[in-house]
Write a structure and sequence with these properties.
The chain has about 450 residues and is an alpha+beta fold. Helix content is about 50%, strand content about 10%. It has an eight-stranded mixed beta sheet. Strands 1-8-9 form a three-stranded antiparallel beta sheet. A hairpin with a 3-residue loop joins β6 and β7.
C-alpha cells in the first residue's frame, strides 16, 4: 500500500505541468481492498449453444485439463462471453483464472507447455501455445490499486466479483465457465438482451479509472443499441463532466476507437452526441466541428463502405483543421491525404459528363495515379455517388506519353521550365480526352516556349 502511495505522488508530479496548462482536472485514485466495491449480485445460468460447443478444440480441452489438474479455476472472460450470448462466434478468446502468473508458469513448465510473449506478465497475463496450433491468453483475476485515468497498478485476487467490478461495461464484465455456467454480477445478460449499454456501477468511477472508456462506450453503443438516442442521462452527464480526461489519451488510441465509431451503426447520431458533450477539442477536432456536413456525408455514403478518414473529414471545414487533427491523432499518410482530398474537392461540380470530371481530377492531382484514383473513389462514396463508382473504377488513366527527357530534346532548357512545359502539355493532353500522341503533343512545344 505504501508503494502505491509513493507511485501516486510520482504520477501527480509528472502530471503537474499538464494540469497547469489549463487542461481539465485528472483524477488519481489509490484503492485499498476495503475500498473495492463488491457491488452487484451474482446471477448464474447455463449456456449450451452451437457457438459455445464449437470452441472446444483439442487445444482448449488440454488447457482446461491442466488448470483442473492443479485445482485452479479457469473461465472465459469479457467480450467472448458477450459474443456467445449474442450467438456470435468470438474472434478472440480471453481467459481469467485464480492462478497467479508464477503459478501458471509453474504448471505450464511442469506440463511441458510452451509460453510465448511474456510482456504481459506484469499485468497478470501469460500466453501459452498448445500443440503448436493455438495460442491462449490467460490473465489472473485483478483489482486496481492505483489508477491515473489510463493505466492501473493492480494486485492479484481470487475474488471473481472484484475482478468483474473493475471492468467497463456490464456485458463485458461476465465470465463463462467451461461447463457452460454464466457468472453475471451486474445484469450484463439482461442489458444485452435489452440492447442497453451501461457502465459497471458508477459511470463516473469507471470513466475516471480510464478515460478511453468514454470512446469504448460509444463504440459499443453503435454495436449493441437499437435506438440511436437511447443513452441514459446519467451516463451522458458523466461523460460531459469528464470529457477533458481524453486530453491525456494518446492520439493513436483515440483514432483506433474513432475509426470504428464513424463508419459504424448510428455513426451520425453518435458523433453528434459526442460533439454536443464537448469532446471535440480533446480529440484534435475544432471547437465547433462541421457536424451537419458529417451527418449529411454519413447519410449519403455510409452504406458504400467508405474509409473512416473519408467520413471523419466531414467534421472539418479547412485543410488547416485536417493538419491539426492529424497532429493529434497521428493518421497514416494515406489517411491524411484522403482527408485533405475530401475537404478540398467535396464541392466539385459534376457536370453533364461526371466521369470526365473524375478523370480530370486524376490528371490534375499530384501523386501516383492509382493512389489518386482511390482518393477519388472515396470522394464519390462521401458524396453518395454510387452511380459513378463502378464506371469510374473500371477506367484507367492512360500513360502520359511525354517524358522530361523528350522535352529537353525539344530544346527546353533544364530546370523549372521543363516542369512548366510538362504541365502545359499535360493540360493539352487532358483537353484532348487523353488521346493525343507524343508527336502531336511535342508539336506544341515551340508555341509554348514563348509562354514560359
Amino acid at each position: 500500500m505504501f508503494r502505491a502511495v509513493k507511485q501516486l505522488i510520482r504520477l501527480q508530479s509528472k502530471a503537474s505541468t499538464f494540469l497547469q496548462c489549463q487542461t481539465p482536472k485528472l483524477y488519481f485514485s489509490v484503492l485499498t481492498p476495503t475500498k473495492q466495491q463488491r457491488s452487484g449480485q451474482l446471477v448464474t445460468m447455463k449456456l449450451d449453444t452451437p457457438e459455445f460447443r464449437a470452441l472446444f478444440t483439442p487445444e482448449l480441452e488440454k488447457l482446461a485439463e491442466i488448470f483442473k489438474k492443479y485445482d485452479y479455476e479457469l473461465r472465459i472472460a469479457g467480450g467472448a462471453v458477450r459474443d456467445l450470448l449474442m450467438q456470435l462466434t468470438p474472434h478472440d478468446l480471453d481467459f481469467a483464472t485464480t492462478a497467479t502468473p508464477d503459478e501458471m508458469k509453474d504448471i505450464f513448465e511442469k506440463e511441458g507447455i510452451r509460453m510465448i510473449n511474456m510482456k504481459g506478465e506484469k499485468h497478470g497475463t501469460v500466453t501459452t501455445r498448445i500443440n503448436d496450433k493455438e495460442n491462449f491468453e490467460v490473465t489472473t483475476l485483478r483489482i486496481d490499486v492505483l489508477t491515473d485515468g489510463r493505466h492501473a497498478q493492480v494486485e492479484f485476487t481470487k475474488d471473481w466479483q472484484l475482478d468483474s467490478n473493475r471492468r467497463d461495461l456490464t456485458f463485458n464484465s461476465m465470465f463463462l465457465g467451461l461447463d457452460g455456467t454464466l457468472y453475471d454480477y451486474f445484469n450484463g445478460r439482461t442489458d444485452l438482451e435489452q440492447r442497453k449499454v451501461r457502465f459497471v456501477g458508477d459511470p463516473v468511477d469507471r470513466i475516471r479509472e480510464d478515460y478511453l472508456r468514454i470512446l469504448r462506450y460509444f463504440r459499443f453503443f453503435g454495436r449493441i443499441a437499437i435506438e440511436p438516442d437511447s443513452h441514459e442521462k446519467t451516463t451522458l452527464e458523466a461523460i460531459r463532466d469528464n470529457a477533458g480526461g481524453l486530453a491525456g489519451i494518446s492520439g493513436e488510441r483515440i483514432w483506433m476507437e474513432m475509426k470504428k465509431i464513424v463508419v459504424g451503426n448510428h455513426g451520425d447520431s453518435i458523433v453528434r452526441t459526442m460533439m454536443d458533450l464537448g469532446m471535440a477539442p480533446y480529440m484534435g477536432l475544432p471547437s465547433e466541428p462541421y457536424v451537419e456536413e458529417f451527418v449529411c456525408a454519413y447519410a449519403r455514403g455510409s452504406f458504400l463502405n467508405p474509409q473512416p478518414a473519408t467520413l471523419l473529414a466531414g467534421l472539418l471545414r479547412t485543410k488547416d483543421e485536417m493538419y491539426t487533427l492529424n497532429k493529434r491523432l497521428k493518421l497514416s499518410n494515406d489517411e491524411l491525404l484522403t482527408g485533405l482530398f475530401i475537404v478540398l474537392h467535396r464541392d466539385t461540380e459534376f457536370d453533364s459528363d461526371p466521369i470526365r470530371t473524375c478523370q480530370d481530377l486524376v490528371c490534375d492531382t499530384v501523386g501516383k495515379d492509382n493512389k489518386v484514383k482511390l482518393r477519388i473513389t472515396e470522394l464519390l462514396k462521401y458524396l453518395g455517388r454510387k452511380d459513378l463508382l463502378h464506371r469510374f473504377s473500371a477506367w484507367d488513366l492512360p500513360k502520359f506519353p511525354i517524358s522530361g527527357y523528350a522535352v529537353l530534346e525539344s530544346g527546353v532548357p533544364r530546370g523549372q521550365k521543363v516542369a512548366k512545359m510538362l504541365y502545359e502539355l499535360r493540360q493539352i493532353w487532358k483537353q484532348s480526352a487523353y488521346t493525343l500522341s507524343s508527336e502531336e503533343l511535342l508539336s506544341h512545344v515551340e508555341r509554348l516556349k514563348d509562354k514560359l
